[in-house]
Amino acid sequence: MPIITVSPDVSLAYETFGDPADPPVLLVMGFGAQLLGWHEDFCRALAERGRYVIRYDNRDCGLSTKFADHPVDTGAFIAAVSSGDIPAALAMAPYRLTDMADDGLNLLTALGIDRAHVVGSSMGGMIAQTMALSHPERILTLTSMMSSTGESEYGRPSPEAQTVVSAPKPAEREAYIAAAEKELTWASKRYGDARALRELAAASYDRAHYPAGTGRQLAAMILSGSRADALRDLKVPTLVIHGLDDTLIDPSGGRRTASLIPGATLLLLPDMGHDRPRELWPTLIEALATHTA
Question: How far apart are the first and last CA of the chain?
Fold first, then answer.
């Protein structure tokens, strides 16, 4: 898999699908998830619709650059934020979502791409929004999927989802794979697939198990704050997709995003949670192909 240097301190692992002459679509993955979260079959199906699809590992994940010299004690960080000691929290975090957004834009530059359609999922949606806000001239269209605006009152997880996402994952391989089934908590009620979750967990563990990066990514999300005011002025054509079964980022996050961005289209999907069930791929790919036409 190619790894390309995109800035003096960051190299990104990436993969492409389709014809480079077709319109580019950059897929941005979410919190702690490798590019494998964008299933290869999904990427190929979108490429078959005449798109040049690019998926990549965010910094501190997968095969991309790790910021191991800046350890973040997640408990101490949450305690600092909860107590209002923002200076202490800021001192712990080596980067923000703006830096992660720059990574994606720098990847496009390194690949010789001036402008692209950008699709972000969960934290990736936050990164994609940040790309569009910081460099709208480089974003042909924005798709924000199962994401939110950074406002604490929208997109809140259910207590059950919060418990699962906050729990440390097992270090041992087989236990790690088995624990992936807990993600059914926020999956599609109709199409949730324990076997698919285990398969992704196994592939991710074997490729690049790196739990230390999640603390820094979490800090980047929390400290980047609300994008609400900026989103009100965004001029990039935007599609917002959210599953009605999502309990990790409540659908209010998607509704709020669409309500703020002028002219945004909101697609709320029954039978989708904080996942992309294969059964819904035709709907998702059709929506993306139409939006990026």
Answer: 29
Q: Which strands sit side by side in the sheet containing 139-145, from one edge to the other? A: 3-7, 10-17, 52-56, 24-28, 116-121, 139-145, 238-243, 265-269
Is 190 part of a structural domain of the chain?
A: no
Structural domains counted in the chain: 1
Domain containing residue 243: CATH number: 3.40.50.1820
The answer as to whether 171 is a domain residue is no
Give the range of the structural domain holding residue 53, as residue numbers without chain letter.
3-158+211-291
What are 69-118's pLDDT values in tens digits?
998 888 888 888 888 888 888 888 899 999 999 999 999 999 999 999 99
Number of residues assigned to the chain: 293
Q: What is the pTM of this model?
A: 0.96
201 is a domain residue: no
CA–CA separation, 89 vs 66, rounded Å?
Answer: 20
- Establish if 242 belongs to a structural domain: yes
DSSP letter assigned to residue 59? T
Mean pLDDT of 147-171: 94
Contact criterion met (CB below 8 Å) for 257 and 144: yes
Distance CA(6)–CA(110), nearest Å, equals 6
Residue 27, strand partner residues: 55, 119
Tokens matching residue 69: 């010299």
